[in-house]
Amino acid sequence: MTDCIFCKIARGELPSKKVYEDDELLAFHDIHPAAPVHLLVIPKLHVASLAECDGRHGEVLGKMLLLAPKLAQDHGLVDGFKTVINTGKGGGQVVFHLHVHIIGGANMAHV
Ligand code: AMP
Ligand code: ZN
Question: What is the distance between the alpha carbons of residues 38 and 31, in angstroms, rounded to a whole number?
């Protein structure tokens, strides 16, 4: 996807505050943090949302979720953290490249 901003970040064509990278995944700071710690984990390969995932995405989805507690720990979220996946317009998704939000460091009840 040439005009997808998260694809551009994954390709290094747009800047990001990167916190993790491997062959399949990238994690970086959200540009408009909703809490003291607000990270996004994306697959490098474009998939628009969770609704477009199928069995082929199982492994990468598992890796994204397993990365969340590691990144949370790295960023000092010892009491816990929130993971959010907004899916589709009705789910509040704005960037149509699958991503997991990792949010913490404040009262998470209303975030
Ligand atoms: P969502 O509503 O789940 O689609 O959330 C998209 C998130 O991406 C929002 O929290 C935005 O602040 C964040 N975002 C948008 N553009 C960028 C960017 N260039 N770098 C980092 N985060 C971004
Ligand atoms: Zn994309």
Answer: 9
Measured from the alpha carbon of residue 91, the closest ligand is 1
CATH code linked to domain 5-81 = 3.30.428.10
Backbone angles phi, psi at 90, to 5 degrees: -65, -20
> What is the average per-residue pLDDT within 47-72?
98
Whether 87 lines ligand 1, by a CB cut-off of 6 Å, is no
Average the pLDDT over 13-39 and give the result. 98
- C-alpha span between 38 and 100 (Å, rounded): 10
Cα–Cα distances in angstroms (integers) from residue 99 to residues 1, 44, 46, in the given order: 15, 10, 10
